[in-house]
Predict the 3D structure of the following.
Amino acid sequence: MTPCDFCGTVAASWLYEVPEENIPLLVAAGDGIAAPLPVDDGLWNACFICAPFVDGRDVGALLNHIITGARRAGVSFADEPLWHALLIGKYTPLMLDGTRKKPL
């Protein structure tokens, strides 16, 4: 059973593939050389609860679902606005044109 990459609480039933050109890059510098590094592999597993948020391109509702579930599990967020900003950056590429959805 593959868990949902978003809420982590339910078995995933869908795989979303983000096109390579939509995957955000970080620039890592070391020894005077800067190199772009992909933030992730562009593959996201989603459960039947999270998939409609992705399909509807509703990153706000997806974040609310994730954070609400995390709170129920006892996770506290010291700086919730920062978490929102980080997660928006992480999940927004998924909402762009070109993302493909396949059943698992």
Observations:
- The chain has one domain: 14-103.
- The first helix runs from residue 51 to 55.
- The radius of gyration is 15 Å.
- The longest strand covers residues 25-30.
